[in-house]
């Protein structure tokens, strides 16, 4: 039973890191989208 707390801690840490990865991926996508829109706007303008 000693492994249970460790497993829960591992899962919590893993979940947190996955959330960070998702947030970073979203931020990167958002920045790229904004950059692309700026370039398009510059071409039109």
Give a brief outline of the structure.
The protein is mostly helical and 45 residues long.
Secondary structure blueprint with pairings:
Blueprint: H1 3-44
Polypeptide structure, described:
The protein has 45 residues and is mostly helical. 93% of the residues lie in helices and 0% in strands. The protein has 1 helix and no strands. The chain has one helix at 3-44. The longest helix has 42 residues, at 3-44. The chain is rod-shaped, with a radius of gyration of 20 Å. The chain starts with a helix and ends with a helix. The model has no long low-confidence stretch (mean pLDDT 90).
What would the keywords be for this entry?
mainly alpha; 45 residues; 93% helix; 1 helix
Task: Report how far apart the termini are.
Answer: 66 Å
User: How confident is the prediction overall: mean pLDDT?
Assistant: 90
Instruction: Compute the number of helices.
Output: 1
Low-confidence stretches: none
What integer value in Å does the Rg equal?
Answer: 20 Å
Helix share bin: over 70%
Strand content: under 5%
């Amino acid at each position: 039973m000693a492994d249970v707390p460790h497993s829960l801690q591992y899962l919590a840490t893993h979940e947190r890191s996955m959330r960070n990865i998702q947030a970073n991926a979203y931020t990167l996508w958002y920045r790229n989208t904004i950059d692309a829109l700026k370039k398009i706007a510059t071409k039109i303008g």
